[in-house]
Amino acid sequence: MFENLTDRLSHTFRSITGKARLSEDNIKDALRDVRKALLEADVALPVVKSFIDTVRSRALGAQISKALNPGQQFLKIVENELIATMGQANERLNLAQQPPAIVLMAGLQGAGKTTSVAKLAKFLKEREKKKVLVVSADVYRPAAIKQLETLAGEVEVDFFPSNIEQKPVDIARAAIDHAKRQFFDVLLVDTAGRLHVDEELMTEIKDLHAAINPIETLFVIDAMIGQDAVNTAKAFNDALPLTGVILTKADGDARGGAALSVRHITGKPIKFLGMGEKVDALEPFHPERVASRILGMGDVMSLIEQAERSIDKEKADKLIKKVTKGQKFDLEDLRDQLQQMQNMGGLTSMLDKLPGMGNVAQLAQSSNMNKQFKTMEAIISSMTPEERRNPDDLSGSRKRRITLGSGTQIQDLNRLLKQHKQMAKMMGKMKGGGMAKMMRGIGGAMGGLGGAGGLPGLPPKR
């Protein structure tokens, strides 16, 4: 979502880095570029004006360490202001009330509201260990009720049935009564949306809010509609006491303006980011981490948390024991590693969170590395267990069978075998000689990224 903004700001910081010190002239030039970058990212005009004024006063006041060079000083000021604009820290859901804690979800039709209910239910169930009930009060779209029922089954939370003959207030009250009797911790209430803000929608949702008195009222907005998302959020905020925002479709080609504007315009924090269609694609919004990624400094904390949730620790421990004992790293092990990486969002997602790797992540994305890894996984899956353990013994006829079974070409298989041989050699260095040898091996492998034996799809090094 922030790629274009990151590129523009990186250019600005490079241009100011060569200066001897921060002066009024070079600050003025840098701020002009920052203003352009923010406006191109569809950030609301009042937010841009406030942002630029604050950065200017802090840069001219030199409220920063003299040990930093001008580029670093300016970067630090912009980073601090980005964090302040989006909210100083992650704000968790407030569920501290007599169960069930009621969460009302509001938003326009098509913003991803019903999907976000399911994502939030899964998040609360798995990460917060809550017993969750979901209910749909959208009586205008029968498909919405069925959709939520299907999604609830997918994320394995309870669904309270409703139908289009009922009134939204009656549905919500019945769901609350059921939640109390069955000792649910949280009740998520999905509401009707419209294609635009209208009086009927606002009256209905105000009545529903007054009837159920939710502890959290979350507004779901689509990052793809840019500044208009912020205007819609303001309209809802004027009608309802919103407590937070869920920004959906943040993995799309939106320009980031909504994320940078919504806190300033509404005064309400973004609490979650929706990062895709899958039901586990919901992440808590951490302003400091997002600011770090916008400025190309990575997001190591999110990467660590993702690894802790996604990596199969038993398989990881088994592989470490295997290679430290000098046992062979086979294709079964390679497939496990590819699957672990897919569970973490793929190579592009991982690289994007590492400091200074933004350009490499874009390169990996443009060369479709994730697709290449899926091809590798398909080839390995077409082999017998014996072939995975002993790939060096593959005959021509076996290779033809494997490529036919995986829908690939002989050259794809040969490339995979060459890459596996390099990795097996690198893993072998862990025995006895320890990590120092292995790191040298990794350096060699990374050096060969573009060659025939390197990772597929990347252009050769110059």
From TrEMBL:
EC assignment: 3.6.5.4
Region described as Disordered: 382-407
Alphabetized UniProt keyword annotations: Cytoplasm, GTP-binding, Hydrolase, Nucleotide-binding, Ribonucleoprotein, RNA-binding, Signal recognition particle
Source species, domain of life: Bacteria
Basic and acidic residues bias locations: 385-396
Record family assignment: Belongs to the GTP-binding SRP family. SRP54 subfamily.
Domains (record comment): Composed of three domains: the N-terminal N domain, which is responsible for interactions with the ribosome, the central G domain, which binds GTP, and the C-terminal M domain, which binds the RNA and the signal sequence of the RNC.
Entries under PANTHER family matching the protein: SIGNAL RECOGNITION PARTICLE 54K PROTEIN SRP54, SIGNAL RECOGNITION PARTICLE SUBUNIT SRP54
Protein name: Signal recognition particle protein
Organism the protein comes from: Cellvibrio zantedeschiae
